[in-house]
Amino acid sequence: MSLRDHLSTAILVVSLAAFLTTGPAQAATDEARQAYREAVQAAMQQDKNISEQDRTALDQQKGSLGLSDDEAREIEQQVLAE
Question: Could you tell me the pTM of the whole model?
Fold first, then answer.
């Protein structure tokens, strides 16, 4: 499964769960952060490094999810520390 396919599936699952457990505005923020986290995990799964191709995909997803550079960096650091 490609990073893009994984992210699309993750967004659907997380969005439904977040919406059912929180209000719509908070669900959107939580959903975006979780979707980005899962994409970062997929990109780092082999060697904890992000390839140039994955970095491009992550940057596009960060923008489409409405995450700031700081939010994305925080998530990436958390995933790296896991």
Answer: 0.66
